[in-house]
Design goal:
Belongs to the complex I 75 kDa subunit family. It comes from Salipiger mangrovisoli. The chain has 23 helices and 30 strands. By secondary structure, the chain is an alpha/beta fold. The strands form eight sheets. A seven-stranded mixed sheet has the order 5-4-18-17-16-6-7, with helices on both faces. A six-stranded mixed sheet has the order 24-26-25-30-23-27. It has a five-stranded parallel sheet with strand order 10-9-8-12-13, sandwiched between helices. The structure holds iron/sulfur cluster. Iron/sulfur cluster (SF4) binds next to helix 1 and helix 6.
């Protein structure tokens, strides 16, 4: 009987930032199936990944013993996960930890800032905190980052600049209290499916749903307004919406006067963006722009949701600045049904960022260049003076490897050999490293380049807290037993720190959580015991009884004077524009069934059966022009490289575009992508590369 189980354990889905609570049904130390339970974000719902994406943890490819590279074994994508012994040999934990620590320590001793770390947005808050602490305390600098750099770094940069906080101002469930919602540069039906169910219900109840995206994805069916604009034209489009609000006097002057600054500059700037003058650039009829502007500005309460279609551009920070300005000028922050909500990608990208796993901020976004902040953390940590210089970001670290500055890395649960832009450059950097320590659950593409691999427990095999897109801190509980000698990440990082002479003594994540609270005011009134008891508490929580505030900034903003700021955004074209050689536009993203680089979901039976291989989507007219039948193969070429991939016909994709998911190593999207970065958030332009498409 497939429904036969011994025990049920409550945890949190390990995939997206929605943070659905789950009940793991266990038998003989293994997960038999998963059910949704009544968490604050999911209210009992799960998507296909949450329901069926669990059996990867019992896959025969799981790493069960530490591995050390054989002398002289070549580094590269050539190791069979089922038979790693052509390149690696098994080692005891003692030998592997000693090798890992001594290699990093030697490089550090030789020449200062030569070691860098990538932590993980798929680990717990406690593990993210320990990882950044290890790099800062152990190596004395801030060269530590994680995949937020590839996802919402530009959103956080704009939010910190203009609102004073990088987190959402309202939970997505607040859509119940909204009259209008904008969803821009996001495809929640595929990427935040449970959140999308609330959006659909909102539309069915008569809420005005404004969907803005270069792709006409499935949420279009529920939209009151579909604004399918030209790729890269986000800033002129958003400025034109705001210019209508100014021209027609639809802004909320009382709110602007009370809570904002720099309005006059914004107003003047917008005068040059009348929608009638921008139709060619945005591809959108001025009448539709005016209707959208009026609909949003005249509603009682409006929410703005955005995803990586907004953030992954060289003008990603400007895109978010526009969205913040739109919310501020209409008074749509700090009240029920209103607010700013960048939909977070990974299950714990919010928590990992909050915990300081970023090169410019310590926990709770405290400025690493501030002497007082640094000494407060040195005091909490008991030792370990570290630099006040901002560290290198994900893509900068790879550049520094090529330049010879970074010579060793510790990578925990990240897969830059698949996820970095221009991945050929990243793979060459990984191969060049003199000492690479990889800690993961599978022999990932990145682990192929490691000198030593440390086998880790999967999320359902460990205990710790995670923070979802709604600022809800939730308790994840260990259910299944880790295979072989795999260990929880916090325990591995703790032992590595001990071997580096840092004297850490943690014996349980609750001790780490207690230490984090000392440096993180956002956790005030949230304790480990409360989370064990209540499962989830939203920050900020105003008292030990308060379940947390779904809406913030009702009384002003955490900036000087309590005022948010308008920062005008000018039009910056994409880094590459299509030309005769590369005439089309490549955009990359995810599919419902697969998660990021595919290491987990492609090893989940049901999900792999539904989406078994690499694919791209093209408009039927484009396929006809190329002479390719749906299901046939096409060649995609950019200035970085080329791949061959099966083509699907999809009317949602514009005729001059190709959409390519990045989960498939056999046709790795990031061989093609442009590494040009946003100057503020340092996020790459994954959403726009010039590409040539031909029949393969
Ligand atoms: Fe998991 Fe996200 Fe799906 Fe919820 S919506 S079940 S958190 S992948």
């Amino acid at each position: 009987d497939s429904r036969d189980f011994d025990e049920a354990v409550q945890s949190v889905c390990p995939f997206c930032g929605v943070g659905c609570q789950v009940s793991l049904k266990l038998k003989d130390g293994k997960v038999k199936y998963v059910e949704g339970i009544n968490g604050p974000a999911n209210e009992g719902r799960l998507c296909v990944k949450g329901r069926f994406g669990f059996d990867y943890i019992h896959h025969p490819h799981r790493l069960t013993k530490p591995l050390i590279r054989l002398d002289g074994a070549e580094k590269g994508l050539n190791v069979d996960p089922a038979n790693p012994f052509t390149h690696f040999r098994e080692a005891s934990w003692d030998e592997a930890m000693s090798f890992a620590a001594s290699g990093l320590a030697k490089l550090h001793d030789e020449r200062g800032e030569t070691v860098a770390g990538f932590g993980s947005a798929k680990c717990t808050n406690e593990e993210a905190y320990l990882f950044q602490k290890l790099i800062r305390q152990g190596f004395g600098h801030n060269n530590v980052d994680h995949c937020t750099r590839l996802c919402h770094a530009s959103s956080v940069s704009a939010l910190m600049e203009n609102v004073g906080s990088g987190a959402v101002s309202a939970t997505f469930n607040e859509i119940e209290n909204a009259d209008v919602a904008i969803v821009i540069g996001a495809n929640p039906i595929e990427n935040h499916p449970v959140a999308a169910t609330f959006f659909k219900q909102f539309a069915k109840r008569g809420g005005k749903l404004i969907v803005m995206d270069p792709r006409g994805h499935a949420l279009k069916r529920f939209a009151s307004h579909m604004v399918q604009f030209r790729p890269g034209a986000d800033v002129p489009l958003l400025n034109s919406i705001m210019s209508v609000i100014v021209e027609e006097g639809l802004y909320d002057q009382a709110y602007i006067d009370k809570f904002t600054e720099n309005w006059e500059a914004e107003k003047q700037h917008l005068a040059g963006f009348a929608p009638e003058t921008l139709e060619d650039l945005t591809g959108i009829d001025a009448a539709l722009v005016r209707d959208v502007a009026r609909t949003f500005a005249t509603a009682n309460a409006g929410l703005i949701f955005w995803g990586m279609g907004v953030s992954q551009h060289i003008h990603g920070t400007d895109n978010s600045r526009c969205l913040i300005s739109l919310a501020l000028m209409t008074g749509n922050v700090g009240k029920p049904g209103a607010g700013l909500h960048p939909l977070r990608g990974q299950n714990n990208v919010q928590g990992a960022s909050d915990a300081g796993l970023i090169p410019m901020f310590l926990p709770d976004y405290q400025d690493v260049t501030n002497d007082g902040v640094r000494s407060a953390f040195t005091e909490i940590w008991g030792s370990g003076d570290f630099s006040g210089k901002k560290g290198l970001t994900v893509t900068e670290i790879m550049d520094a490897v090529h330049e010879g500055g970074i010579r060793g890395m510790y990578i925990l649960g990240e897969n830059p050999a698949m996820s970095d832009p221009d991945v050929t450059h990243a793979r060459a950097a990984l191969a060049k490293l003199e000492h690479l320590v990889v800690q993961d659950i599978f022999l990932t593409e990145t682990a192929n380049y490691a000198d030593v691999i440390l086998p880790a427990a999967a999320f359902y095999e460990k205990t710790g807290t995670v923070t979802n897109t709604n600022r809800q801190v939730q308790m994840g509980r260990a259910g299944a037993t880790p295979p072989g000698e795999a260990r929880e990440d916090w325990a591995i990082t703790t032992e590595l720190a001990q071997r580096l002479g840092l004297g850490w003594t943690y014996t349980h994540p609750r001790e780490v959580f207690a230490e984090m609270k000392r440096g993180m005011p956002s956790f005030d009134n949230i304790t480990w015991e409360r989370l064990e008891r209540e499962d989830a508490v939203t920050y900020p929580s105003l008292s030990p009884e308060d379940p947390g505030q779904p809406i913030v900034f009702a009384d002003g903003f955490p900036r000087e004077g309590g005022r948010a700021r308008f920062t005008p955004a000018s039009v910056i074209p994409p880094d590459e524009t299509p030309d005769a050689e590369y005439p089309m536009i490549l955009t990359t993203g995810r599919q419902l069934e697969h998660w990021h680089t595919g290491s987990m979901t492609r090893r989940s039976k049901v999900l792999d059966a539904v989406e078994p291989g690499a694919n791209c989507s093209l408009h039927p007219s484009t396929l006809r022009r190329l002479g390719v039948e749906p299901g046939g193969m096409v060649k995609l070429q950019t200035r970085r490289g080329e791949i061959e991939v099966m083509a699907r016909a999809d009317r949602a994709v514009a005729p001059d575009m190709v959409f390519l998911p990045f989960a498939y190593v056999e046709a790795a999207a990031n061989i093609l992508t442009n590494p040009a970065i946003d100057p503020f958030g340092k996020i790459p332009e994954f959403k726009f590369s010039a590409v040539r498409v031909t029949a393969a």
